[in-house]
Amino acid sequence: MKIQNIILGTTMLLAFTACSTKQSAINQLESFSYELRDHSRDYDTDEWERTGKKFVSIRERIHKHEFDYTASEKAKIGRLEADCVKYMAKGAKDGVFDKLKNIGSEIKGVIQGILDTLDPNTLETEEL
């Protein structure tokens, strides 16, 4: 009986940890989108460099849990990423990305890839 309780407790702890980790990645993306919405128009070159790196980092965290998300969570992630891209594209439109110094090609590639694949007029949620 004691071993069953230990196994049950361990299983519940692992399940809770996994859920909170995948949810924390969504929460971080949501917070980041609000940060961009409220402050990105005032970013300087260094802030845009940090912003690009942070976006890549958040996307990597989300990617680690991509098979654990439900369809509604994936839809929310897509909307939040689209919001982030919208604010970053606005910065690019204003010429900020052209002035960035020493930004890695990975960040430029991620941002360009997202901008190339997302058309804000035809955003659709893909069911997997």
Topology, pairings included?
Blueprint: H1 2-39, H2 45-64, H3 71-93, H4 105-117
Key terms:
mainly alpha
In total, how many beta strands? 0
Task: Indicate the percent of residues in helices.
Answer: over 70%
Order of helices and strands: HHHH
- Taking all Cα atoms into account, the compactness measure Rg is 18 Å
Shape: elongated
Low-pLDDT stretches: none
Task: Give a written overview of the molecule.
The radius of gyration is 18 Å and the shape is elongated. The protein has 4 helices and no strands. By secondary structure, it is mainly alpha-helical. Helix 1 packs antiparallel against helix 2. The model has no long low-confidence stretch (mean pLDDT 75). Helices cover 73% and strands 0% of the residues.
Summarize the structure.
This protein has helices spanning 2-39, 45-64, 71-93, 105-117. The chain is mainly alpha-helical.
